[in-house]
Amino acid sequence: MIFADKAAIVTGASRGIGRAVALDFVRHGAAVSLAGRDREALEETAAQARAIRADARVAIHAADVSNAAAVDALVAATHAEFGSVDIAVANAGQAVDGLLVRSKPSDLDRMLDVNLKSAYYLVSAVARPMMKQRTGAIVLVSSIVGVAGNAGQAAYAASKAGLLGLAKSAAKELGSRNVRVNAVAPGLIETAMTASMPDQARAHYLATIPLGRAGTPDDVSGVVTFLCSDAARYVTGQTIVVDGGFLM
Known about the structure:
The chain is α/β, with parallel strands linked by helices. It has helices at 16-27, 39-52, 68-82, 105-133, 144-148, 154-174, 199-208, 217-228; strands at 7-11, 31-36, 58-62, 87-90, 136-141, 179-186, 239-242. The chain has a seven-stranded parallel sheet with strand order 3-2-1-4-5-6-7, with helices on both faces. The longest helix is centred in the middle third of the chain and has 29 residues, at 105-133. The radius of gyration is 17 Å and the shape is globular. The chain starts with 6 loop residues before the first strand and ends in a 6-residue tail after the last strand. The model has no long low-confidence stretch (mean pLDDT 95).
């Protein structure tokens, strides 16, 4: 119950890493606002939360978090329902792959909107109540592609790299009010997003990962839980790579 009396917001909570993070928060006693565009999938997350804890406090918010007004409304609703906003995890994300010379401006716009701007809006919105209460933890879900780049993913990599700069800058701005901001950079994680990865690319990753396997959403959620807990109370502005050693 390390998050008893805490309230968290998780974007992209309908599946994959976001769902695993939300369920881990519930497991440890937090009230959780589940945000995403797919209400039916969010209902599934909520049902799993209640299976973990019959008294789970979860709220569903079907919203497009690439819209600043929608994010402001999400934060306000969470504060009104749970009385505080103590934790925020910006996990909403999409991937559009393609060679740089064949990319469309709309591809870059979409990556920036969903992967970067949504996180910027969330950090900005939760900063106000967190600064006022003089405590808070924010985690941005980036990618090893944002750390090292990857051929065929220039737009995705640019958006994910932007999250690392956002985390460091926000950590410096908010640290004096005891608000911590960190990032995680997952590697190959078995989610719906990676299910369509070409076999050749998957084989390359698996052959290069020292731990010899792809990760699971639970491999990432545990790190996020740590970063949001008091065990990480002196950790801010950091990027934790969760990739089985791929980038080592």
